[in-house]
Specification:
This protein is an all-alpha fold and 315 residues long. It contains 14 helices and no strands. It has a domain of 218 residues.
């Protein structure tokens, strides 16, 4: 069904979503829901595009995008932590604001093309059958997206700081009692997550979908939110969800020549399928059944951080 070239394309196209999904996973693990993901990605995509286009250096685009993503995330954190505002409401307002602002500010850049991220084949490894083409004939941002997934997993589950991250999202009161600065760390991890979301946005306009348009990120920010839940807030499972979504997209596009009359419908199929998968994974009857099989429950069950979306007050 998929040849080597198609799989390599899926891996390359997954890079922006991997960055954004890891960023949202980190933020939500810390207890802060950043619902502005789609708008933040768009505004960061514009910032990255403008920086790269005006300076002539594609590599200056990614720090600019990371800074914008971080700024938006800090607004979410400040609104929820300091002002006690509803995180969902703050995120949705910022989504709308960032979306409209990016379209307004980017109107003069439509149709212009910046320098693209250059390909970088890994010496020796590029000649390995199948894996060489799929994994080692990509560009630096694809490699960094994969490393980001690995680093996120190792940090969360193999380091003391990672345990603190999980603690402030699961049991903030207990974490505070152990001397962990809960709110300070929530600011930090939300900002870090926002930076990764911003880099994901720039990866669209500087690599996957080169150039600026009024929908540069294809509204994939909403899919990122669904995939994080689908993946149970676990970096590896979230990454698998991203690749699964990419495979569904590729399969839908491959069906267009066979069903030309459905050419406008087929590219949209992965979206409802991901939502359906999300509903199934969180179906109560399924969850009760999974409780009988601990090994399978660990793979499929999606349990959100206990304190996600809640404000922690220091007494």
């Amino acid at each position: 069904m998929f040849d080597t070239a198609t799989i390599a394309t899926i891996v390359a196209g997954a890079a922006p979503l991997l960055f954004a999904a890891m960023g949202e996973t980190i933020s939500e693990k810390a207890g802060v829901i950043n619902l502005s993901v789609d708008g933040s990605m768009m505004l960061a995509a514009l910032a990255g595009f403008v920086a790269a286009f005006e300076t002539g250096s594609v590599w200056l685009g990614f720090p600019a995008a990371a800074a914008v993503g971080m700024l938006v995330a800090l607004v979410v954190a400040f609104g929820s932590i300091k002002l006690s505002l509803n995180q969902v409401a703050v995120g949705f307002v910022l989504f709308a604001l960032c979306t409209q602002l990016s379209r307004f500010l980017g109107s003069s850049y439509v149709g212009r093309l910046p320098e693209a991220v250059p390909a970088w084949d890994v010496p020796l490894l590029e000649s390995i059958p199948f894996f060489g083409r799929v994994l080692f004939q990509q560009n630096l941002m694809v490699y960094l997206s994969i490393l980001t997934v690995i680093a996120t997993y190792v940090y969360m589950y193999r380091t003391r700081k990672g345990l603190e991250l999980q603690g402030i999202g699961e049991r903030p009161e207990a974490a505070h009692a152990r001397g962990i600065p809960v709110n300070r760390l929530r600011y930090f991890y939300t900002a870090l997550g926002g930076a990764l979301i911003g880099i994901g946005g720039a990866a669209f306009t500087l690599d996957v979908k080169l150039g600026w348009s009024d929908r540069p990120t294809l509204n994939f920010g909403w899919i990122v939110l669904a995939i994080v839940i689908f993946g149970g807030w676990h970096p590896i499972r979230v990454a698998i969800g991203v690749l699964l979504f990419g495979a569904l997209q590729a399969y839908a596009l491959n069906l267009i020549p066979e069903f030309p009359s459905l050419s406008q419908v087929l590219p949209s199929i992965p979206f409802p399928l991901m939502i359906l998968a999300l509903v199934i994974v969180n179906w109560k009857a399924l969850l009760r059944w999974l409780d009988r099989y601990p090994w399978l429950r660990a793979i499929l069950r999606s349990d959100p951080p206990t304190a996600i979306g809640t404000r922690f007050e220091v007494n």
